[in-house]
Amino acid sequence: MNYFWLTLGLFAQFLFSMRFLVQWIASEKQKKSVVPIYFWYLSIGGSTLLLFYAIHRKDPVFILGQSMGLFIYFRNLMLIHSKKGDPYIS
Question: Is the Cβ–Cβ distance between 40 and 76 less than 8 Å?
Answer without folding.
Answer: yes
